Request: fold
Amino acid sequence: MGNIGLPELLIVLAVVLVIFGPKRLPQLGRSLGGGMREFKDSVTGRHKDDDDDEGKIIDTPASKNVTTATADEETETARAAREAKTADA
Reply:
């Protein structure tokens, strides 16, 4: 008991075909394969992004660097914009 042979697989495939229809079978296969791949990657600890940046040095010019403003700086900027708007009115 527990052995799944060709007749059992054909019965399961026929039931799936009847339930979901021939148009949705490729989509179902893709999503099932993607889910199994993600599960395997999470179990083994590998991710897609891990291999992409390995050994690469990313050099960005200083003009492309982005700094974030503190809350005080944002408040001062908003206050100056509000004062400029009221001065124009």
Notes: The mean pLDDT is 79. The chain is about 65% helix and 0% strand.
